[in-house]
Model the fold of this input.
Amino acid sequence: MVVTTEMVMTHTYFRHARLLDPANGLDQVGDLCTENGRILTFGAAIGVPEGAEIIECDGAVLCPGLVDMRVSLGEPGYEYRETIATAAQAAAAGGITTLAALPDSRPAIDDPALVRLLRARGEETGSLTILAYAALTRGCRGEELAELGLLREAGAVAFTDGCQAIASTRLMRLALTYARGFGAMVVVHPEEASLAAGGAATEGELATRLGLPGIPAVAEAIVIARDIRLARLTGGAVHFAHVSTAESLMLIRRAKDEGLAVTCDTAPPYFDLNETAIGDFRTYAKLSPPLRREEDRMAIAAGLVDGTIDAIASDHQPRDADDKRLPFAQAAAGGSGLVTLLGITLAQVHNASLPLARAIELLTSRPAKLLGSDAGTLARGAAADLCLFAPEHAWRVVAGELPGKAQNTPFDGRALEGTVLGTWKAGRRVFG
Amino acid sequence: MATSTRTGRHLLQIEGMHPPEIAAMLDLAESYVLLNRSGKTQRDLLRGRTLINLFFEDSTRTRTSFELAGKRLGADVINMGVFTSSVNKGETLLDTAGTLNAMQTDLLVVRHPESGAPNLLAQKVDAAVINAGDGTHEHPTQALLDALTIRRRRGRLEGLVVAICGDVLHSRVARSNIHLLTVMGARVRVVGPATLMPSEIGRLGVEVFHDMKAGLQDADIVMMLRLQRERMTRGLVPSEREYFRFFGLDAEKLRVAKPDALVMHPGPMNRGVEIDSAVADDPVRSLIREQVEMGVAVRMAVLDILSRRARRND
Done:
């Protein structure tokens, strides 16, 4: 490596973009210039620095790189499904520059060293910041609290047992109380385990017709109702992941009105698909929580608009073909979601009543804030994590041809409007 | 894709089948009843065709019935039980499909403990797939043989009151019968403890009863379902004696049905649990033996129709 005393300035200049940064109320046509990986300035007439690489945006939307607050990485432990490197490819193709990784890997992220390792592995990709959730209980086994203080010190953004709710009410109370002392929220997969055990689809007419063991939709609201009461009791902060029913939103809305530290996210399948997607035993549409009935899907879509839902996360769960090509009840639940996160969200903008700025806010600054990250906005001096997309440009989701390794999309065959043209991480182009 | 696996070259489920198609199958089966009773066979029909009975669940009755049906039509019949094949050694269902393709199977009869397994196989094998019972989903040939049995005794299906009683939740027989009988115009009731009723079963076009006498009132047909003992261990029913007291079919409960009401059971029976021996063995009311005979004829009709369709596609 050549060491020079003279600082070399590198600039990238985005010309004629629709600059969209909901956190700062910015939505205007203009230019943006980066310098050495950071945002230098943006606005109407800012001038092109000498030697800058120029990106002609032609009116496409330039927004902060997306922040995905719920991702399961195959690594460590399930590398046959996905590695961090392939997840990073998929994320970049999806416009995602920051993600929060779930801790229920093998081993579980329940040790400070593992938290640091995950962050470092993200940096190694050069295209992705990986924020680490840490296990709420040792091994995500739901038995005894993990070392929340040490994990927090190592950089854990919040605590969760991933795809498992804490069955014991006493333990959940302790967790909320203790985590509160370290200023961290607890992220919950809201599903009452004994009601969900063995279930493969939402209980109801369709599951009855298909002869599939059902999970009552209320299994979600039961945990949410309990944990809202515990949040009130303890003063702790609780975040419900991938909420999927109308009743869940009703409970969360009421808790927010009461001023409790209660937040939630949902994932694209829950506002884009309903249970009929599993018809004829399509295991790629087998998810956890299972797809719901149409009334619930509509309620989730409405929750994006009315502000009850705080963030949209991909809920990316990589699965191998062998995990899915099984009889429905035996097939693994979970869908890949990094590549389709933006496109499916934009369908709500095109076909429903979700304003574009609100959609982008739910994909950038809102999840960043929940995670205590300063990503997700266009600020002068901030890292130039950027996503450039053509909101009206059409493409089709084809399982088997998606970037990255995990091809288990529940959206196979779906026509979408909204194509990522380019993704930049700290000023460096990582996709497009 | 949904329709291609439902009708056409496979028989995966009754749901989605139309009345003329069902009636045609029953009519053909009727002719096979006469053929079988005459002691003749029709061995040229499936000569040179291979039928594999692929059973991932033990079922002597259904397997034997298909075997007999295949042999009477001249097919080469091979039985592959889960106990003798490599599916126990970690081979997946789809590996098995590949093997079957390599063997040039024409007709594949599948019994599997998981709902939808035959649908999955049907997407991957060249053979015509016949669902011989999958999980708690469907058992189409059972519904066809039940319909044939009823139709021969009553001359019709339309307008009959059929009470399907017992563990509807776990019953593929109940689901297939509900689809078939409702689409053919029968009035179907389901009767059983609320813990053994599938969610929203009423949406399938049936009336739901939790009291046997109310459900059997003026019924033409009483169809009993098998209660598996493991249901008790899962706490869905407190005890066998309580089940028999409230939901077991005995002469007293049967009294509220029509005087000439007929009793059916897909077998094998748990005598003294869901059905009293006196009722099961009643030579006038019980159709249980006749169901077995109709089973062979219906399966001959199904094999006949599917192999004709396969030839047409060749």
User: Anything to note?
Assistant: The interface with chain B takes residues 203-205, 207-214, 216, 279-281, 322, 325-330 of chain A (CB under 8 Å).
